Amino acid sequence: QVQLVESGGGLVQAGGSLRLSCAASGRTFSSGSMGWFRQAPGKEREFVASITWAGGLTYYPDSVKGRFTISRNNAKNTGYLQMNSLKPEDTAVYYCAAVRLKIGSSRSDDYEYWGQGTQVTVSA
Q1: pLDDT tens, residue by residue, 61-73
Q2: Cα separations in angstroms, 6 against 15, 19, 55, 66, 97
Q3: Contact 13, 90 (CB under 8 A)
């Protein structure tokens, strides 16, 4: 059974940084992608970043490009999301997700496995 466990969320002031981690267990990912999504209260789930397990190709929406960096450590089966220059509008529950075969997808429906989420709160 595949499990994804996020960690690293918390409260930070605007302009600050946080690093989220996503540890995968139950399966070693060597293809497909890992993605990060976020959901703020009353809003739809939003794509934040994705990375291919093989090759490390990354994808970002304009809202976070230049501020967020996704990475992965295949040996540890773990992914990361480094978030810099955080803004109050980045406040949300952040979820990591994984899919075995697709790459570069920003659609949450394409992802097969999901973590439980970690809260990120950015104060003004």
Answers
A1: 999 999 999 999 9
A2: 22, 10, 22, 22, 10
A3: no
